[in-house]
């Protein structure tokens, strides 16, 4: 049988390196496949399966990089020297890639977010579904869809973005947001009665949502300068061009924002329909004539 070096017209040394590299690649790939198969069969929890698969991928990638790299670089017996040379070359030729890997280390060590968190980075918001060496993925919320609900699109974001863009996390420290529902009524309406009705509706539909908020604020205050004086729902009064604006303000988990708005609005419409002295306002034009 013709030797590989003669068949491809390459040196025996290069031929040997290729054979060892291919063999290592196949061995590591089979090991990765079997490890994933074992995890899938023995673990039923989807989140734990995902985490184990991530760890297996990281170990596989690291071993591939180290073992095959040592085959092709001569005279590198020290792991430290090898990593130093490799890092220097990559830093020059692959600036963006290195930035993404640095971002991955930042995410995994400081944990500004994890899989399952709802975040906003720059102008993009969504629920984190995957974190990899070079990018993380989110299911987009908002955009053309109201009230922070999913659009169905998956967006892949380079890890380097966490080092360059403002990042907001709705799940870390304090898992509630303040939501406001503006209700505009006419000037002729009994605004005091309307405010009382809205206050009762807010208490019935939103007060229970903030029960865990006080405890979370106490925990968050140990790390951040965060505090709120009033946590229960409240209704504010403002005068606008078309009427009296009553704003319902309450604490809610971001994922429940649209549902609570629906309940409050339905209860408000039902309550206002039963009264004769409260009407919702809309932009109008009024004309006055002075009688002679």
Give a structural overview.
- The protein is of the alpha+beta class and 292 residues long.
- The chain has 3 domains: 4-93, no CATH class; 118-169; 177-273, Alpha-Beta Plaits (2-Layer Sandwich), CATH 3.30.70.100.
- It is 47% helix and 20% strand.
- The protein contains 9 helices and 8 strands.
- The chain has helices at 4-7, 12-42, 46-72, 79-93, 95-110, 161-164, 191-206, 213-220, 257-273; strands at residues 118-121, 124-131, 135-141, 150-158, 167-169, 177-185, 234-240, 243-252.
- The strands form 2 sheets. A 5-stranded antiparallel sheet has the order 4-3-2-1-5. It has a 3-stranded antiparallel sheet with strand order 6-8-7.
- α2 packs antiparallel against α3 and α7 (191-206) packs antiparallel against α9.
- The radius of gyration is 30 Å and the shape is elongated.
- The chain starts with a helix and ends in a 19-residue tail after the last helix.
- The mean pLDDT is 80.
Report on the biggest sheet.
5 strands, antiparallel
- Any idea of the CATH topology of the largest domain? Alpha-Beta Plaits
Q: What Rg is obtained from the alpha carbons, in whole angstroms?
A: 30 Å
Sheet/helix structural class:
alpha+beta
Strand arrangement across the biggest beta sheet? 4-3-2-1-5
Strands, total number: 8
Low-pLDDT residue intervals, each spanning 5 or more residues: none
| Total discrete domains | 3
Helix-strand pattern, N to C?
Answer: HHHHHEEEEHEEHHEEH
Helix content: 40-55%
CATH architecture of the largest domain: 2-Layer Sandwich
């Amino acid at each position: 049988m013709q030797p590989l070096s003669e068949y491809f017209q390459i040196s025996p040394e290069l031929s040997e390196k290729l054979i060892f590299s291919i063999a290592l690649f196949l061995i590591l790939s089979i090991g990765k496949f079997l490890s994933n198969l074992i995890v899938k069969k023995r673990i039923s929890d989807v989140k734990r399966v995902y985490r184990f698969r991530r760890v297996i991928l990281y170990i596989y990638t690291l071993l591939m990089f180290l073992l095959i790299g040592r085959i092709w670089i001569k005279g590198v017996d020290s792991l430290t020297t090898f990593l130093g040379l490799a890092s220097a070359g990559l830093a020059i030729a692959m600036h963006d890639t290195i930035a993404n890997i640095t971002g991955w280390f930042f995410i995994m060590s400081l944990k500004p977010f994890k899989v399952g968190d709802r975040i906003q980075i720059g102008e993009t918001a969504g629920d984190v579904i995957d974190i990899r060496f070079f990018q993380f993925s989110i299911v987009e919320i908002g955009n053309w869809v109201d009230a922070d609900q999913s659009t169905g699109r998956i967006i892949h974001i380079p890890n380097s973005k966490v080092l360059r863009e403002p990042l907001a996390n709705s799940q870390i420290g304090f898992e509630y947001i303040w939501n406001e529902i503006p209700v505009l009524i006419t000037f002729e309406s009994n605004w005091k009665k309307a405010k009382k009705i809205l206050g009762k509706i807010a208490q019935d539909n939103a007060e229970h949502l903030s029960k865990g908020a006080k405890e979370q604020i106490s925990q968050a205050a140990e790390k951040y300068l965060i505090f709120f004086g009033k946590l229960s729902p409240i209704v504010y009064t403002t005068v606008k061009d078309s009427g009296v604006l009553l704003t319902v303000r309450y604490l809610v988990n971001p994922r429940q924002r649209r549902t609570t708005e629906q309940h409050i609005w339905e209860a408000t419409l039902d309550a206002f329909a039963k009264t004769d002295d409260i009407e919702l306002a809309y932009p109008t034009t009024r004309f006055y004539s002075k009688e002679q």
